[in-house]
Amino acid sequence: MKVLGIETSCDETAVAVLEITKTEVLVLSHVVSSQVDLHKKYGGVVPEVAAREHTKQFMPIFEHALEQASCGLDDVVLIAATQGPGLASSLMVGFEAGKAFSFGRDIPFVAVNHLAGHIFSWALGKSGEKKDHSISFPFLSLIISGGHTELIFVEGFEKYTLLGRTVDDAVGEAFDKTAKMMGLSYPGGPQISNYALKGNREEFALPRPMLQSGDYQFSFAGLKTAVLYELQKHTLDDKIIADMAASFEQAVADVLVTKAARAIDDYGVESIAVVGGVSANSFLREQLGSRLQNCNVLFPEMTYTGDNAAMIAYAGYLKSAQNNTDDFKSLSVNPNLRIA
Ligand code: KG4
Ligand code: ZN
Fold first, then answer.
1. Would you give the distance in Å from CA 269 to the centre of its chain?
2. Do residues 18 and 1 touch, judged by C-beta distance below 8 A?
3. Counting CB atoms within 10 angstroms of each CB, which of 81, 137, 206, 274 has the fewest?
């Protein structure tokens, strides 16, 4: 069956078409238009600007995705669109378009939680590559992105237990704010990652927030403030930036590894999926992959780490496989939609 996915929760306009059978999933097309350059000059995402851009980009991206998948809307048997969480005005663009297509062509519709999209994003193969998508439950999911840091015990689709989340900044937000303090442009994550390759990871003694808290909560605001105080003692140059980037990444890695290791022990799972925009970070991949013992550490393909519609189509399929389609006429976006 062909499933159309739509994602406009933040600053990416994305549409994808997947061909899914009971055993295999094939991404036929996966088109993402990022607004990063547009928001760069503001140092972060401006909701009004994002929504306007989605309305401009949506139809061309939609047509491109169908064309790339060599199909028409009439070949699609399920439409999945992100309902939340995210920016209300951005969410509305994709969600309402999905509802309209569904109404106009009488195609079943599913409302998808954006975080459910990330949770299963590791199951997708690259565009054009068929992948066996049998999923073994239970597993842990560590979502690390610009807006989220959540550790979730996943016993099945929509059977989630939220073990912990950030009490302040998300990991990606901490990357972006740390980068900004060092004069690096938005989004700072990839730049920190590049600078860190040349830096000394032990140069700055940064805190590991909530490491000993005995629970699964995270906090990154204090780490960001510690970076600020350290930076004030130095004149910024390439070496300081590289050492700070490297020390910052090490602190984040230590926190994520410790919390994840505790959850793996406590819940006895065989796999942990680390997903979301920050899961593109090569140092974090290496640290989580090598330090989390007795557990498969799963990562999405790079192309599905950031926000995309292929993961929304897939989560929509999983929802519909449980005979869950939505009566879209009564549905609207929910910017604060929770996963559990
Ligand atoms: O998942 P995503 O595209 O959007 C949200 O749902 O938030 O994540 C974006 C975040 C940004 O904070 C960005 O700086 C971060 O992911 N990011 C990275 C890397 N690539 C993107 N952080 C660290 N290292 C990277 N290589
Ligand atoms: Zn996301």
1. 22
2. no
3. 137
DSSP 9: S
Q: What six digits make up the tokens of 213?
A: 């808290």
**What pTM does this model have?**
0.96
Cα–Cα distance between 274 and 310 in angstroms, integer? 17
How many angstroms separate the CA atoms of 194 and 67, rounded?
35
The residue whose two tokens read 């929504």 is 51
> Is the shortest distance between the CB of 209 and ligand 1 below 6 Å?
no
Q: Is 178 helix (H, G, I), strand (E, B) or coil?
A: helix
Does 125 contact ligand 1 (Cβ within 6 A)? no
CA distance 16 to 314: 10
Which residue owns the Cα nearest ligand 1 atom 1?
Answer: 277
CA of 193 from ligand 1 middle (Å) equals 11
Q: Which of 7-11, 150-154, 212-216, 224-228 has the lowest mean pLDDT?
A: 212-216
* Ligand 1 nearest atom to the CA of residue 118, by list position: 1
Q: How far is the CA of 200 from the centre of ligand 2 (A)?
A: 30
Task: Say yes or no: CB of residue 196 within 6 Å of ligand 1.
Answer: no
**pLDDT tens-place string over residues 219-241:** 999 999 999 999 999 999 999 99
